[in-house]
Fold this sequence. Notes:
This protein is mostly helical. The chain has one domain (3-304). It is built from 11 helices and 2 strands. It has helices at residues 3-16, 22-33, 41-47, 56-68, 103-134, 139-181, 183-203, 207-213, 218-231, 233-257, 261-304, and strands spanning 37-39, 98-100. It has a two-stranded parallel ribbon with strand order 1-2. The chain is globular. The chain starts with a helix and ends with a helix. The mean pLDDT is 87.
Amino acid sequence: MKVIDTLSEGFGATNRRLWIVAIPILVDLFLWLGPRATIGPVLAQLLQTDVPVQYGDYAALIQQFISGFNVFSMAALYLPSLVVRLEAIPLLGLASDFAVNSSALLLGLAVAALLVGLWISCFYLGLIAQLVRDGQTDLRLMLRAVWRYWRRLIAFLVLVCVALMVAAIPVGGAYVILSSFSPAAGDFLAFLVQIGLLWAIVYLFFSIQALLLSDAGPLMAVRLSVTVIAGNFWAALALIGLTFLISIGLPFAWQLLATNPAGLLAAIVGNAYIGTGVAAAGFLFYKERLERLTALAAKTTQEAR
C-alpha cells in the first residue's frame, strides 16, 4: 500500500467511527472557552535568564512563549489540538483566567494536566488502534486497556527523558570545552546534536503505534518502531514528512478561517477530523508494514531450515 493510499484508508477508517473525532474537539473547546492557567509576572521574572548576544532572538521567543503559555495546553501533547497552535483566538474564555506565581503550583498543574492529557490521548489513540486492528471499537475493552496503555506511555516518556539527560552530560561538557577553544566548533557540535535528535525522532516515530496497536512495553515499542522504520525507510519518511507537513501547515490555513467564533468552531472540527485521519493512517502504515516484515522474516527462517 502506497503512502497516499494509506492516508486515504486512514480517513476511510475515521469515517466508520466518526464519533472518535469528538474527543479532540471537546479538548479544544475546553482550551478555548475554559479557564487558562498562565505564568504570572513574578514567576516569569524568575524564568528570565541572560543568554549570549547571538542567541538574543531565541530568548525573545522564549519570553513571548512564557507570557502566552497556558499550562492546561500540556493536556494536548498527543492530541490534534488546534487552539494551542493558533496565534490568536476571536473569543476569550467563558471562565476567568488565573496567573500562577508559585513554582510548586505551576509544577503541580503542569504534571496534572500532562497526566490527564496522556490518559485522554491513550483513550483516543487506543480507539483508533482498536479500529485499525479489529475493524471495530469496544468501549468496555478500551476502558480496561487504557490504564495499561497510560502507564506504558508514561514509562516510555520517562525512558526518553532519562536517555536525553544521560546523553546531555557528555555532550554538554564537550560543547563547553569546544566552545572555549572555538565557537565555530561548538556550533558544529550543536548542529550534529540537532541531526542526531532528528534521526531519533524519525526512528521512534511509531513507538506510540507499537504501544497501543501491538500492546508492547516501552522497550519493545522502541524496538518495533526502529524495525518498521529500518525496513521501510523511504516510505516511512514520506509518511512522517506528510504528517508533519499537515500538522504544521494546516494551522496557518485554519487561522484564516478562525477570525470569528463560528469560523474557529468550524476550524476546530475540521482540524480534529484531519488529525484523526492522519493518526489512523499512521496506525495502518505501522500495522501493514510490520505484518509484511514479520511474514518476510518467517519465510526467510523457513527457507533457511
